[in-house]
Amino acid sequence: MKYLSEYRDLTLVTELVEDIKAITTKSWTIMEVCGGQTHSLVKNGLLEMLPNEITMVHGPGCPVCVTPISIIDEAIMLSKKSEVILCSFGDMLRVPGSDKSLLEAKSEGADVRMVYSPLDAVRLAKDNPDREVVFFAVGFETTAPANALSVIQANKSRLKNYSILASHVLVPPAMEAILSDPETTVNAFLAAGHVCAIMGIDEYYPIAEKYKVPIVVTGFEPVDLLQGIYMTVKQLEVGESKVENQYARVVQREGNLLAKDVIDKVFEVSDRDWRGIGTIPSSGWEVSNRFQQYNARKKFHLQPIEVKENQNCMAGEIMKGKKKPFDCPLFGKACNPEHPQGAPMVSSEGSCAAYYHYSNSNNMVAENN
Questions:
Q1: Based on the structure, what is the number of domains in the chain?
Q2: Which of 147, 222, 273, 346: disulfide with 137, CB 3.0–4.6 Å?
């Protein structure tokens, strides 16, 4: 497939691995931000190809994984209301809340429906004028334009029975939270190409300057990732801390101006809780007052819910890059895709799921049981 197969070319992969080995003289820890990048690194065996001096750690780059238990509990609470149809993408249905998941709530009679687009939820609202349709709007900057458009479309259609439960999180504040942690070992970042395709790259210049870390915007295929790692190591070895764009075929410096305009119309920046990490200031988007009639929290007068994390789950330490999935005593045992204890094992982009399905570390865990 044009523009894809060449980024999976084994010859290029081999050459890039050798190039990385040739310039690496010190030990470096690099965090890839996106769960899609994590899956590509693990699935394609790239971690085993890299020199021992390079350690890749996996950041909080999966929006499903960082959605806090309290917001999942809000969604479950809404789904139990007789007048509500709760809509969500499929990967959110199995994420455990404090007591159960949305899928379990559905099995108990809640009207929970999987959709492929927020506009599907808008159509449901049109087709069910006697019901309240709530879309569980989860995601990083990448899904925000479509979710914002659903609000604009509902407003144009004068729908009064549609709202969204927003759980949007933003990447740059999370990177700053990681770098400001005194225990962090991260020397550089591979930034998520799809996020930058929407937002551009200007937000990363102040971070690179403040914390003196290279940030390389990177794609998702093996050649993309290895090129990104090469560019990162090249900077680290000479003491540079610049923002570079490996994913130039997709990402423009200014991002997608139309998408950003739609986001600005519907959302406003807010503090946000991150599962396993805690509250990060100005790291989320909430529905703005201009469209407050489409904010499910205000429509249903939801109050903040305080719940405790599963103390046995190491998801937070894993998403901060402090631990690997196989460091968790539950990994591959009590926690597996059939019986997940934490969101990183549920999500298709979760690092625990990636290691379980593709890494030799899972085989080692199995052999030791």
A1: 2
A2: 147
